[in-house]
Amino acid sequence: MKTAVYPGSFDPVTYGHLDIIRRASRMFDTVIVAVMCNSAKTPLFTLDERVKMIRESVKDLDNVVIESFDGLLINYCKEKNIHIVVRGLRAITDFEYELQIAQTNRELSHNEVDTVFLTTNLKYSYLSSSVVKEIASYNGDITPCVPDFVAEELYNKYGHDRTK
Length: 164
Known about the structure:
Helices cover 41% and strands 19% of the residues. β2 (30-36), α2 and β3 (64-69) form a beta-alpha-beta unit. The chain is built from six helices and five strands. The N and C termini lie far apart (50 Å). Strands 3-2-1-4-5 form a five-stranded parallel β-sheet, sandwiched between helices. It has one domain (3-122): 3-Layer(aba) Sandwich (Rossmann fold).
């Protein structure tokens, strides 16, 4: 049985993330979406809020599990006996960064953890959580970027009432 982990901060989850999760769920028996508690970042949403939004977004996928973790990904992988990491690539700049991380994870795991890269669907190649947050902060339309309930949570965080 092949299990893969898709780690990230998902602050918030976007249609780009969800595309990668859905595609990975067809490739592996189980996909664990591991929401990171990253001390180097200051997230807009709490860890629990991010986990809840992803759970709601993938509730139709029986083989996807949502968890959170803190610390090194390779330690999480060792604890869960996972040998495959899934990462999405939007552009060549993502590749350079992700390749370095993949090589580091492989080395630190003593060649036990490999990374599988999935290229983003072209219609989501511009998406990032940072871009979505910036648009939402100015009360712009983020409905093409995130599920409706995520958009509502974002607008609420920025104090925008979209019901008017």
